[in-house]
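haha ok so turns out i had the wrong file open the whole time. this is the CORRECT one, sorry everyone. sequence first:
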Amino acid sequence: MDQRRQVTRLLDEEHRTNLSLLRRVEQALTAPDQARGQGDLMAAFGRQFEQEVSRHFEFEERDLFPRLNDCGAGDLAALLMEEHDAIRAVADDLLPLARAAGAGELDDPGWAALKRNALEMIERLTAHIDKETLALLPVLDSLLDEDTDRDLAFAYSTA
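then structure:
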């Protein structure tokens, strides 16, 4: 996808970074007897969600979704917001497990719970990123003017 705006390029770059990490986590969790040796990867997965994905969601909700509502794309904003809420609900269970994995403190039931929650997160987040790439980014490319794009990109980059 060829984005015209700085905001859409920033969001797309983050999507690509997250998809790469999601693939690595999924490979580690689905390979026989590999997950337990991947505590550092699981901790990185948790940190990525806590820091970057949360920041990404907050930016969209605060600065982009209201603009979608104003231009008649409120259904898209509402759908993406529902997905944010569902992803956050999975994160509530996943993040403590990812931290414990990074600290080497998970027992067998903990690893099973981590795997279950992480695979659900991967599925939800991958589908969400696909929706944003195919629907949100093109709308933003046509919606944002040059000045607004520059201001939003600066604010997001320095947040």
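Residues 4 and 65 are 19 Å apart (CA to CA).
again sry for the mixup
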